[in-house]
Amino acid sequence: MNEAPRSPRERFREQTRNEAKRVALEQLAESGPSGISVNAIAKRMGVTGPALYRYFEGRDALLTELVTDGYRDLAEALEAAAHAHRRKAPATRFREVALRFRAWALEQPHRYLLLFGTPVPGYRAPELTFELADRSMRTILEAVVALAPADLPSGRAAPDRELVAWRERRGEPPAPPAVLRRAVLAWTRLHGLVSLEVAGQFGGMGVSPEPLYRSEIENLLHQPWE
Amino acid sequence: MNEAPRSPRERFREQTRNEAKRVALEQLAESGPSGISVNAIAKRMGVTGPALYRYFEGRDALLTELVTDGYRDLAEALEAAAHAHRRKAPATRFREVALRFRAWALEQPHRYLLLFGTPVPGYRAPELTFELADRSMRTILEAVVALAPADLPSGRAAPDRELVAWRERRGEPPAPPAVLRRAVLAWTRLHGLVSLEVAGQFGGMGVSPEPLYRSEIENLLHQPWE
DNA sequence: TACGAGTGTTAGATATTCTAACTCAAATAT
DNA sequence: ATATTTGAGTTAGAATATCTAACACTCGTA
């Protein structure tokens, strides 16, 4: 997105940083989060350990950057799916977004776990986590908004008020609370299935997760609007 | 459960092991999975580092033991909830088991994340993971079985066959595939909500997760049996 | 009471993160 | 074109981690 960095030095710097992150993701895939080692990354890049400290404050900063990159990547994948089907029926669009979500997770399970699994380093701020997840959440929300009929009533229960307030805080057009609640449920249900699948919990059960996932999508599409 | 260890030495050994695991869980709560250090545990126990290697093969073995303990603990909590309400209506029993599930996770979020988050050490075998999660799964399954009407048909779709086969493999009384599917969905939906809550993803949203969780329980109870 | 199994210690090999001090090349400025 | 400065990479080293090996001691056991 950003145009070419001005100086050759900045370009080189950017290139080295990306290379380091690329190698870090390799390490992540091979040996898990705790296998990401500044030293090993440097060695694999053909430089000594301390050299990398010119580019990252330390191991945790590098990890954090992988996390933020991951959230951005996921959000972009979902947005692309939504955009690709923007002319289709809302149900179709929702399905495609949901399927893209699972596909993204399965393409790079270690990254998905890095985002939604145990916080790895010292501890990353939960607020940061939320800010980042929010962009994906918004795409799902838009897909759910398009599904809802026009005449949904406004609820008065506690979670409804919270959701409406949250939506207002972001300066987005208001949506009926039932829609917001449905969007959150969509998020948690899809995440529940995907995270257990990625963590290998279905493996021993002999269940193919895909039909389950599809049926859960249909459940969300056909569930009555209270 | 196990009766008193015979020799004083075995008793002492058991005691030391438990103490070590207790301290390890403290470390886990304070500094996350990567903060669990054999050295630090030993220091906190008043001995030197290498002493602990008499009791655990290494750091990974200790970690693995924390994981297996956690799965056992969770399963026992769910079984206790089911047992406490064994005379109540099936819907009540299911509700209580589901609520206990969330309560267990909230009481010790770091442990829940240790079980269902990113695999931490080298890599624990997924089969092991499944074996252990199975016991909790079974309790949920029993609760769902009790909910189902008696005249459910047997499906012929692929996931149904898999689920039935899985159930048979464990030598348990057969259950209609719709029931098994519902049980898996219960598991994934509850886990989806709880894991996002425990990971702090709802924090910034200002949503109280409890009403959402309860509504999801009711959704499971009232969803038609296809 | 003598033995031996088991517990804990120190020393050390290896690997990690990260800082400090230094060199050197290359981009920038004059 | 030359001088200056910026910054990349190096080695050295402090602090801490896992884990092994060799040794000492102690307390159950025979």
TrEMBL record, chains A, B:
Pfam family, any one: TetR_N
InterPro entries: Homeodomain-like_sf, HTH-type_TetR-like_transc_reg, HTH_TetR, MT1864/Rv1816-like_C, Tet_transcr_reg_TetR-rel_C_sf
HTH tetR-type domain: residues covered: 14-74
Domain of life: Bacteria
DNA-binding region: 37-56
Residue stretches spanning the membrane: none
Key words of the record: DNA-binding, Transcription, Transcription regulation
Protein name: TetR/AcrR family transcriptional regulator
Native source organism of the sequence: Saccharopolyspora taberi
Lineage per the UniProt record: Bacteria, Bacillati, Actinomycetota, Actinomycetes, Pseudonocardiales
